[in-house]
């Protein structure tokens, strides 16, 4: 079935608080802790008392402008869920320009790396941090140092909020069971859902099975919305996450 409801199928795992620090969905000091201004232009708002690198989850698009490198020819990156992204100079902008992407920390096969690099960016989410690089005669630019890469399961448009869905270890004898944490990417916001619907993504059954395993291991990046499913007992409302797209982790070689 495409609709997932998790109760006690899997053995109890350690508490989420013991896992998220090492797996990257949250961090003690991270880009999630930055409160970005609600603006979409290059307003002169800087990071106070923050030091780069700052990591986050980014979408990427190529820079096709025709001018000398490193001024042009790199990439425009944007943190998902944020209207403004902190750039290497400390200014929040709608997008940040980086002169290059550093793939050296992404330990994947040459085939998978080529697949990601050849993608136009519409199906890729990258977790990484912006690091400053100085070019003699040109000044300082940012590079995106990639830690993890995630590839969209289908060509379906990603509509909604980008989240990580992660099993939290709760096991129930009745329904609904709020055993899945819903972590909003790049923001310190977490809630729980009791069921997940991946049927609207157009994914195959095999892809959905892989996605399920991700939820019970390192967490699944997905995009969508939550819906409250009412029934005759208002104290037992099902809160369902309905996905429009999900992203599978590119596994290390």
Describe this structure in words.
The protein is mostly beta strands and 253 residues long. It is built from three helices and 14 strands. The longest helix is centred in the C-terminal third of the chain and has 11 residues, at 205-215. Residues 5-54 have low confidence and may be disordered.
Which structural class do you get from the secondary structure elements?
mainly beta
| Amino- and carboxy-terminal Cα gap | 31 Å
Low-confidence segments: 5-54
Secondary structure: number of strands: 14
* CA-atom Rg in angstroms: 19 Å
What is the spatial order of strands in the main beta sheet? 2-3-6-8-7
Query: What portion of the residues fall into strands of 2 or more residues?
Result: 35-45%
Q: How does the major sheet shape up?
A: 5 strands, mixed, barrel
Helix fraction, binned, reads under 10%
The dominant shape is elongated
Order of helices and strands: EHEEEEEHEEEEEEHEE
Number of helices, counting only DSSP H or I runs of 4 residues or more:
3
Average predicted confidence as pLDDT = 79
Task: Give the SSE layout.
Layout: E1 3-4, H1 20-23, E2 55-62, E3 75-79, E4 85-86, E5 92-93, E6 96-102, H2 110-118, E7 124-135, E8 139-152, E9 161-167, E10 180-184, E11 189-193, E12 195-197, H3 205-215, E13 220-229, E14 238-249
Parallel strand pairs: 6-8, 12-14
Antiparallel strand pairs: 1-12, 2-3, 2-7, 3-6, 4-5, 7-8, 8-14, 9-10, 9-13, 10-11, 13-14
